[in-house]
Structure formats: C-alpha cells, structure tokens
Design brief:
Number of domains: 2
CATH architecture of the largest domain: Sandwich
Strand order of the largest sheet: 5-15-12-17-10-7-6
Domain Fe2OG dioxygenase: 231-329
CATH topology of the largest domain: Jelly Rolls
CATH class of the largest domain: Mainly Beta
GO biological process, one term: demethylation
Distance between the termini: 94 Å
Structural class: alpha+beta
Protein name: Fe2OG dioxygenase domain-containing protein
Shape: globular
Largest sheet: 7 strands, antiparallel
GO molecular function, one term: oxidoreductase activity
Number of strands: 17
Helix content: 10-25%
Region (Disordered): 44-122
Length: 339
C-alpha cells in the first residue's frame, strides 16, 4: 500500500560459539562442556586406540545452538582459544614446574643438615593431565571409580599401615619390605609361584574374602575386556604399599607371561600414580595415569610387548597401595585359593 511503512526487521541473533575438542580416547569432536562425560563413557567401553594413535586437536568452531540465547553462550567479543594453545600452555607450565622442582631438589641435596633426599619431585597437575592426554596403549584398560570412598577406606584399614609395623592392626600376612622389581612393602595370598623352578603350588594363605568386592567390581565393569568376562576368577592376589618419602618405586618389568594368565587387574588405593610403559623391542614410551579407586587391566600388547614401571616421582600422596589379581597357569579350584 502506498505510503505504508515496513515494520522493522527482526534482529537476528548471533550464533552461539561452541568450543569443539577431540576426545583423547576415540578422537571424535565433542563440545567442551560434554567432553568429560564422553571420555568417561569411552573409558568404560574400553575404546582405546592403538598405541601409535595421536590425539587430534581443533580450534573453536561456530555452531548454531538451538534453543539457546546468544547471551548465554560465549560472548562474541571473547577471544577464540584453541585446544592446541591450551596444550602448549600446559606444556609450558609443566616445564616451569619441573625446573622449579629441580631447583628445590638441588637445595635439599646441598643441605648437610638433612639426610640425602630419596624423594624426587611429585607429579604436578600438569604432568598428570599430560599423561592423560598421551597416546593410549593397546590392550590396556583403566576403569575409574570402581569402588566407593568408604570401600577404599575399609580395604586400607583391612590391609593395615606398613609404616607402623606390628603396632598396626592388619590382616595376615604382615607387611614385609621387599626389593623385587623395586623397593616397597608387600604381602600376598593364593597360589605360590616359584619363578626359579617354574612351578606353582597350593596356597599357604588363601585370598581373604574381604577382597572379593574387588573381583566383583572387575566382573561388573570389565566384562567386555578380553580374558575377563563375567566369570573371571583369579587364584592369586598381592598387595604392594609404596611410601614415596622412603624412595619406593616399581622398576621396569613384565609379570611372568607363562605362569600367569593373559589378564592382570590392579586396583589403586590411597593415592594417584602415573605408570610408564616402555616398548620391550623398541624405544616408545607411554605414560598412563592411575587414579585412586581405579582398576587397570593389562591384556594383549600391553601385557606381552611392553614393560611397566612407576617412578618414585610419579607417586602422589603419602601412601599408595596396589592390589593385583592374577589367574595362575595351572587350574585350581576356587575353594583352594579363597577363604
């Protein structure tokens, strides 16, 4: 109609800006707000890429976010930060923290009023995250939070504090300082293995029923893992207690590949750690974080082609206890190995 004025055009909303990041496990792009949940789902499913796989990075991408006002999204004037930049910042911080820790160690070593320091720098948050983002190892599975904090505390009380000796209430056998594959306290149950004679014999101490909850958790959370399934029944268990201030560590080694079965499960208690895998016939190294209350399972290449170790500086906290379960080569009835 002549002389009529057009209504003002509707103001177009600016599209929300969403940061996409690559999952360090499967490599798929996910919104940064959903990445943690997605990674945990990948871990539970055991979708590890091969040891040579590399983590993919991506920059900020603009996406339409249906049902969201642009005011609630990232402001348009906010600087775009890429995942690559974040990784570079973390690396820089890790280098600075490493240099600082080295300076502190030198100061302690030059101080004649103290005993020589056995303890090296504890892993920093940056180094733990760097290990988390490292390439994954084929055949190695880490399942987080398989037991509750209350169950963790019950197990630690049951095992006892190795630093208090006989004054600590603990289950049999008593903790003993061992120098096998590194220095740490240890105790064991189930079948007895003679590595020199290459034989196994019935147990002198059966596996305590108090540890049954760990096996149940492995069956429930790792039924998809090769050689585990829902009927996995270990015949041997051992506990190792690491006290970082005493210089404890685990030297590079492989659990016996003939006398023990194809799957080994280890529960971490008390503190986090970082395990280093070294290719037995090569030069590659992969660092894998082991959070407390997590279960790590070695199968396939991680069991038969790599050595594993824990450096003293990769032990966190004042005490870390590992509970490792194996199934011996020779079949034995459950009643012979468990209380």
């Amino acid at each position: 109609m002549a002389g009529a004025t057009r209504p003002p055009a509707a103001r177009r909303r600016a599209p929300a800006r969403v940061l996409l990041q690559a999952c360090p496990v499967c490599g798929r792009l996910r919104p940064s707000t959903e990445l943690a949940t997605h990674v945990n789902a990948c871990l539970d499913a055991g979708n590890w890429p091969s040891s040579g796989a590399q983590t993919t990075t991506t920059t900020t991408t603009t996406l339409d976010a249906p049902g969201r006002d642009s005011a609630s999204a990232v402001p348009s004037h906010a600087p775009e930060v890429s995942l690559t930049q974040n990784v570079n910042v973390n690396k820089k911080r890790a280098r600075e923290e490493k240099d600082k820790d080295k300076e502190e160690e030198e100061e302690v070593d030059n101080d004649d009023s103290h005993e020589p320091a056995k303890r090296v720098a504890a892993p920093t948050t940056s180094s733990f995250l760097a290990a988390w983002n490292a390439p994954r190892l084929a055949g190695h599975f880490v399942l987080e939070n398989v037991i509750t904090e209350a169950a963790e505390l019950d197990l630690l009380r049951f095992l006892g504090d190795p630093t208090k000796g006989s004054s600590s209430k603990q289950c049999e056998p008593m903790w003993r300082l061992r120098h096998f594959n590194g220095t740490a306290y240890g105790k064991s149950w189930g079948i007895q293995t003679n590595l020199a004679g290459r034989t196994q014999s019935p147990p002198s101490l059966r596996i305590p029923s108090a540890l049954r909850c760990v096996v149940d958790a492995v069956r429930e959370r790792a039924s998809h893992v090769p050689h585990i399934g829902s009927t996995w029944e270990p015949t041997e268990a051992n506990a190792i207690a690491y006290v970082p201030r005493l210089g404890h560590s685990l030297e590079p080694h492989a659990d016996d590949r003939n006398l023990s079965g194809p799957a080994i499960a280890t529960l971490s208690l008390g503190a986090d750690a970082i395990m280093t895998f070294t290719e037995e016939k090569g030069t590659r190294r992969v660092r894998v974080p082991l959070p407390r209350r997590s279960i790590a399972i070695q199968t396939g290449p991680s069991r038969y082609a790599w050595l594993h170790s824990i450096q003293n500086g990769d032990l966190q906290g004042e005490l870390r206890v590992s509970l490792t379960f194996r199934r011996g080569k020779f079949e034995m009835e459950r009643r012979d190995c468990w209380e």
